[in-house]
Amino acid sequence: MGSTRPDRRGFLKGGAALAGGLTLGATEPAFGQLPNPDTYIKGTDDLVAYGSRSHHVTSARIAHPPGSQASPDAFGKLFHIASPLQDSVGMITPSSLHFVGTTRGSFVPDINPREHRLMFHGLVDRPLVFTMEDLRRLPSVTRPHFVECAGNRSRTQHKTVQESHGMTSCAEWTGVLLSTLLKEAGVKDAGKWIVAEGVEEVKGASSIPMEKAMDDCLVAYGMNGEAVRPQNGFPLRLLVPGFEGIFNSKYLRRIKVVDRYYMTYNDFGHLTRDPDTAALGYQIGPKSVITFPSAGQQLPDRGFYEISGLAWSGGGAVARVEVSTDGGRRWNDAEIQGTAHRMAHTRFRYQWNWDGQETELLSRSTDEIGQVQPMRDQVREHFNSRGVPGQDNSIQPWRIASDGSVHNAIT
Ligand SMILES: Nc1nc2c(c(=O)[nH]1)N[C@H]1C(S)=C(S)[C@@H](COP(=O)(O)O)O[C@H]1N2
Ligand SMILES: [Mo]
């Protein structure tokens, strides 16, 4: 794995500097302990049954695009909702803060799992219908995967990492491999693509090449240790690891095996692509972003900070993340936390002593197949009036002003 672990003793030497108060001004000498708390949280039946976070923690999702009142609209429809990446730790997004993507707005269907069915038909030997109970009896897998909306792109007007990058999240998904179900149905030789459809008629339908369908797609009923949440596709959704968000059909009810690419409601943006090369084009990334410190945050003082961020790629596992603390002149290997999973967010860290001068922080990821995240100038030639057509996985610079305020530095 391309990561370099920081030398432990080197870090402890740094730690000595921290204790000396030179670099971490806020650390106080230890005199006495905190008094016992004088307020307590009263247990309720609800808190016994299903916990909640501290009322001191206020991290929240926002409607996207930022500033819009799109979600919920006056009728209760949802559009896209962005996750507060600036507050994230580790690599799993809690289900309650997972971003939500609904194509051009929709009501979240309230599906009774006992009545829900998943049908396989088209170019198959045996058309099949599965109940949720049927699916739960089959061999399952549990894997962390990100979902990212292809519209997740940084714009100059974005003021936080939530606005620029909040339409990606990573959950631990549990379900049945799509290949298990397709083999059960028996794909005919002519079956080269599948069309996966949710319960919203044409919405949430996507054409996916058979190679991908047979590889690592997941028909998921579990998310972060419990049932998939309604906003994320309860009771059943498709996970197409590494592909643009729109392929991950929620409320999955139908898989049709077909002989060619089928145009669907979601094909806006994909229409001009050659179906033979579509599969690669639909892959996300490689991408990364520093979540701390990020735009909108404030560094209280010069001194030690652990820079922390997320990296991911549709091409596989993240192999390497580099961080620059001088606007891209020098790049340093960041530490990758734990195991980098395929098509999953990967947390990276880099230890930094801020000297109080204005500078720019950047991160760059490389995935296991050698794809390197591009600089913004490298993709700029493809810009149109809306920025980059299709995805924009370019490097995000954050400017640290000399007063410690952090700003979006893209132009
Ligand atoms: N049925 C259905 N599936 C859907 C959509 C939808 O509107 N309906 N939106 C897609 C889009 S645009 C995205 S980005 C992802 C978002 O998945 P999430 O809401 O779990 O984050 O779901 C996709 N699957
Ligand atoms: Mo999306």
What does this structure look like?
- By secondary structure, the chain is α+β, with helices and mostly antiparallel strands.
- Among the domains are: 117-279, Sulfite Oxidase, Chain A, domain 2, CATH 3.90.420; 287-408, Immunoglobulin-like.
- It is built from eight helices and 21 strands.
- It has helices at 8-19, 45-49, 132-137, 161-165, 178-185, 210-215, 278-281, 376-380; strands spanning 62-64, 80-82, 117-122, 128-131, 141-148, 168-177, 193-198, 206-209, 218-223, 226-227, 237-239, 252-258, 287-292, 303-312, 318-324, 332-333, 335-336, 346-354, 359-367, 398-400, 406-408.
- The strands form five sheets. A five-stranded mixed beta sheet has the order 4-3-12-7-8.
- A hairpin with a 2-residue loop joins strand 9 (218-223) and strand 10.
- The longest helix has 12 residues, at 8-19.
- The relative contact order is 0.14.
- Residues 1-17 have low confidence and may be disordered.
- Bound molecules: ligand MTE and molybdenum atom.
- Residues 80, 101, 149, 151, 245-246 line the site of molybdenum atom.
